[in-house]
Automatic annotation (TrEMBL):
Keyword Transmembrane: yes
One GO MF term attached to the UniProt entry: 9,15,9'-tri-cis-zeta-carotene isomerase activity
Matching Pfam families: NnrU
Main location: membrane
Domain of life: Eukaryota
Entry annotated with the keyword Transmembrane helix: yes
Domain NnrU: 133-352
Listed transmembrane segments: 90-109, 132-151, 163-184, 204-225, 330-349
Membrane topology classification: Multi-pass membrane protein
Subcellular location: Membrane
Protein name: NnrU domain-containing protein
Keywords assigned by UniProt, alphabetized: Membrane, Transmembrane, Transmembrane helix
GO terms of biological process kind: carotene biosynthetic process
Originating species: Clitoria ternatea
Length: 361
């Protein structure tokens, strides 16, 4: 893919040049359970940041500051404009969410009608070791989740973006619920390797780490209407907010969550769960970059060159220059929603534990 060479200090000339920029090529997908980056519907999309004015032929054509501000190829993440919201869309979202939870309960969670308990009983029969069963559950979820993600482009061509999103969520969500419930019910059944829960300040440190992890874990919930397929799912090449810190925030968030829970629980079941989850997300880093490179070509390579997998690495070595008002990229409705949900989940821990125990999974 050839890139346009645009050299001008005039805003009008920059905008004119953008209209002659070549289209991007091929298609790709990267995802994570309830938080996916779904693909664009067009085969050759032109994805530009609202503030984009010129596109350099290489990273050396402009300094890092210009690339990160004026020449962003990705989208501005976590934007939410109340004036653009439709009441009807959120009514549909609420109805779909209610229907999904109802069907999930009937078809999977309720022991009298659902398949969740038979599924877990079948997996548990493979080994008497809770660690082995935990790993098998994660392997099943990871295989199905990543497999459906890999087939996404082909699947969407056959049945459409919305239908494939429903299929993806309909298969992934029950498996995720089973894995989480099994972990909650058996988190203290393994071999105790260390006991640090009485260490002063450790609970506060682990709580803070877990709290921060959710800002990394759920960047794709920036548009809940796409998650529920109310809006047509799209593949977003984000380049602001949490993406400035790390190009793979879900992996970073999962590592933080796993380390916090493993240090606190300190047994073999927690270690097994963390090993499986981290391995799955590390695979996602490699596979995600590979697919993005196929989907976006040189545009992704430019974004990749000024971001990093390791948090803050691109910032420390000067490839990512933060704007003066960087903090404003986090003072947005989606991040505030993540804050509220995270706090709610923490205080709801006793309810979650009681509900999981009552399932007898």
């Amino acid at each position: 893919m050839a890139a346009s060479v645009v050299v001008s200090t005039s805003l009008s000339l920059r905008r004119t040049a953008l209209h002659h920029r070549p289209s991007l090529s091929s298609s790709f997908f990267i995802s994570k359970t309830i938080q996916c980056f779904p693909p664009l519907t067009t085969s050759k999309p032109l994805l530009l940041h609202p503030r984009t004015f010129l596109v350099p032929t290489s990273i050396r054509d402009t300094d890092a500051q210009t690339q990160n501000d004026s020449n962003s190829l990705g989208e501005d993440s976590a934007t939410f404009r109340l004036a653009e919201q439709k009441i009807s869309s959120w009514i549909y979202f609420s109805a779909i969410l209610g229907l999904v939870l109802y069907l999930l309960n009937i078809l999977w969670i309720d022991n009298s009608t659902g398949f969740g308990k038979p599924f877990l009983d079948a997996v548990s029969s493979l080994s008497d070791s809770h660690e082995v069963v935990m790993m098998i559950l994660i392997l099943i979820f990871a295989g199905v989740h990543s497999g459906l993600a890999s087939l996404r482009d082909s699947g969407e061509k056959l049945i459409g973006e919305r239908a494939y999103r429903v299929l993806f969520a309909g298969v992934s969500l029950p498996l995720a619920v089973s894995t989480v419930v099994y972990f909650i019910n058996h988190r203290y059944d393994g071999l105790q390797l260390w006991q640090l829960q009485n260490t002063p300040g450790l609970h506060q440190l682990m709580w803070l780490s877990n709290f921060i992890s959710f800002f990394f874990l759920y960047p794709s919930t920036f548009n809940l209407l796409e998650v529920a397929a109310v809006d047509k799912p799209k593949l977003h090449l984000w380049e602001t907010g949490i993406i400035r810190i790390t190009r793979h925030p879900q992996m970073v968030g999962q590592v933080m969550w796993c380390l916090a829970h493993t240090v606190w629980i300190g047994n073999s079941v927690a270690v097994a769960a963390s090993f499986g989850l981290i391995a799955h997300h590390l695979f996602g880093v490699w596979n995600g970059d590979r697919r993005l490179a196929i989907r976006y070509g040189k545009d992704f390579e430019l974004v990749k060159s000024r971001t990093s997998v390791v948090p803050f690495a691109a910032i420390f070595d000067g490839r990512q220059k933060l704007p003066k008002d960087f903090y404003k990229e986090f003072i947005r409705v989606p991040y505030l929603a993540v804050t509220a949900v995270t706090l709610g989940a923490y205080f709801a821990h006793p309810l979650m534990q009681a509900a999981s125990f009552n399932l007898h999974w």
